[in-house]
Amino acid sequence: MSKQEEFKQRTKAFGLRVVKLVQSLGDDRIGRVLGNQLLRSGTSVGANYRAACRARSAAEFRAKLGICEEECDESMYWIELLVDSELIRAELVEPLLAEANELLSMIVASINTSRNK
């Protein structure tokens, strides 16, 4: 399996984990608002990576990866806010935050590699 296919699977798995986290949140107003924000950004990482894989130029590839970078970082923000607002315990989302951080590092590295070619 190519690295590209592995990363597609990994970003999709991240999105699915976000979906399950959002499903576990309470149905109060704050949980719905923060959950919707996280759901949008967390599932967008994989969707935009797939779009980057179909880019027609190096510039378009970097632009799509830039969106992945923003959405991944935003997902981390929403997860941190859920923890800080005590809607979810930190230890429950530490693995998800660690994965988001790894994905973000890999996305940034890909952008930098593409720029240096």
Automatic annotation (TrEMBL):
Transmembrane segments: none
InterPro entries: 23S_rRNA-intervening_sequence, 23S_rRNA_IVS_sf
Source superkingdom: Bacteria
Pfam families assigned: 23S_rRNA_IVP
Cross-referenced PANTHER family: FOUR HELIX BUNDLE PROTEIN
Protein name: Four helix bundle protein
